[in-house]
Write a structure and sequence with these properties.
Blueprint: H1 2-7, H2 11-45, E1 52-57, E2 60-66, H3 69-72, H4 79-91, E3 100-105, H5 109-117, E4 122-127, H6 145-149, E5 159-162, H7 166-176, H8 178-187, E6 196-198, H9 205-225
Parallel strand pairs: 3-4, 4-5
Antiparallel strand pairs: 1-2, 1-3, 5-6
Helix pairs in contact: 2-7, 7-8
Bound molecules: zinc ion.
Length: about 230
């Protein structure tokens, strides 16, 4: 992409470049969601809950996992949280602000809180979860009170892409187990709605300056010595 950018020397080239960037980004999203769907089906086949999560930084997969609740006999082992733990350990940082999380179904409220505290910058998910979702049911993922009141801990809400490839997710899970997933659909626990996205809101100059300073302050003070302010 950098080489393409350097060659874009006129407005026409830049428009073309923007279209190419969107296409490349969309292609990458599709690639990651397809991988996530395959992982979730494998999870179901292995008698685990059929959910999976992948965390990327740029085009690199930092961590991926299925749910581990059934196998580990531990309700805290949701795929998203397992991935966040693994990524933080691998990157040796509790801040994942430059990372994107892909999940086949909307994260629950518990996982959404972990996403907000680890400051994940973008979340892409397939099916919506009107009963348990941390975005549809309880507004944790897009809540601004957290970041306004505790900016030393929380970033503003991530960019959210909901309903991404939802039909593909639903079909894959129906193919995996028509009875189980058919019952889940009938109960309205997960639904395949149309895609929509929530961009990060525009920030004032003061907010942008503060946001630019915060990563340094978090790295040197808040994240190292506790969040006591
Ligand atoms: Zn969860």
């Amino acid at each position: 992409m950098i080489q393409i950018k350097m060659r874009a020397s006129c407005a026409g080239d830049l428009k073309l470049l923007n279209r190419m960037e969107c296409k490349i980004s969309d292609n990458f999203d599709r690639q990651m969601m397809s991988r996530c769907i395959a992982l979730s089906v494998k999870s179901g086949i292995e008698r685990e809950y059929p959910y999976a999560a992948i965390l990327c930084r740029g085009s690199e997969v930092i961590a991926e996992s299925t749910n581990k609740v059934a196998h580990d006999h531990d309700v805290t082992r949701h795929a998203e949280v397992v991935v966040i733990c693994e990524a933080q350990r691998r990157l040796r940082s509790i801040s994942l602000s430059d990372c994107v999380m892909y999940v086949n179904a909307e994260p629950c409220v518990y996982c959404c809180y972990a996403m907000r505290e680890s400051r994940i910058g973008r979340v892409v998910y397939g099916l919506r979860s009107p009963q348990m979702g941390g975005n549809s049911r309880w507004n944790v993922l897009a809540d601004e009170v957290l970041s306004n009141k505790l900016p030393e801990v929380f970033d503003p809400p991530p960019e959210i892409v909901a309903g991404f490839m939802a039909s593909e997710v639903e079909q894959a899970l129906l193919n995996w187990n028509p009875f189980v997933w058919g019952t889940i659909i009938k109960r309205g626990l997960f639904v395949a709605g149309p895609p929509d996205s929530l961009k990060r809101r525009h920030q004032s100059l003061a907010e942008r300056v503060t946001r630019a300073l915060l990563p340094f302050l978090r790295r040197t003070v808040f994240d190292r010595f506790g969040r006591w302010i």
